[in-house]
């Protein structure tokens, strides 16, 4: 196929949006197909403008998923942006982290999910065996590090109570964060 003159190529390009394919110049006869392999939940975080993040929301500070406990916004000075000062607690280890970000800039916000599982067993090596909603078992979760929750979990299981644990997951980490008794066994 002969290359088109430039003026003709431009008019052909506008008509090409209505047709399925257009070859300009001497391209190969191969067609290229691109497929997206990403799922809706593929990303561990999503961007959100710093000025829209509120107390009790989530934010990523120093690569850790955190729950915001305090937000203060400073007004713009003679130069620059208004700035947001975030004080947040790591949702997995409880450490306090702080960050200051211009309010018009984007921050990473973690996808945080909570899932309930029924407790089946507590192994001697510190892992729990959980029953998922579809009937499979989940055996890759450690006991919680929170002493009060750990005691409650072990005592309730020893007494033969029917326990449901809430597992919080964000950025590839999971941890038991709550416990409820759903009646006697």
Mean pLDDT over all positions: 81
Main β-sheet, in a few words?
5 strands, antiparallel
Computed over alpha carbons, the radius of gyration is 26 Å
CATH fold description of the largest domain: OB fold (Dihydrolipoamide Acetyltransferase, E2P)
Q: Please report the number of helical segments.
A: 2
CATH-level-2 architecture of the largest domain: Beta Barrel
Proportion in helices: 10-25%
Terminal-residue CA separation: 78 Å
Number of strands: 11
Q: Which superfamily, in CATH terms, is the homologous superfamily of the largest domain?
A: Nucleic acid-binding proteins
Strand order of the largest sheet: 9-8-7-10-11
**Helix and strand succession?**
HEEEEEEEEEHEE
What CATH first level of the largest domain would be assigned? Mainly Beta
| Overall tally of structural domains | 2
Task: Describe the fold and architecture.
The chain is mainly beta and 185 residues long. The protein folds into 2 domains: 45-110, SH3 type barrels (Roll); 113-184, OB fold (Dihydrolipoamide Acetyltransferase, E2P) (Beta Barrel), CATH 2.40.50.140. The protein has helices at 6-16, 147-158; strands spanning 45-49, 58-61, 64-74, 83-90, 96-102, 106-110, 113-122, 127-131, 137-142, 161-170, 173-184. The strands form 3 sheets. Strands 9-8-7-10-11 form a 5-stranded antiparallel sheet, with helices on one face. A hairpin with a 4-residue loop joins strand 7 (113-122) and strand 8. It is elongated, with a radius of gyration of 26 Å. The model is unreliable at 7-28 and 32-38 (pLDDT under 50).
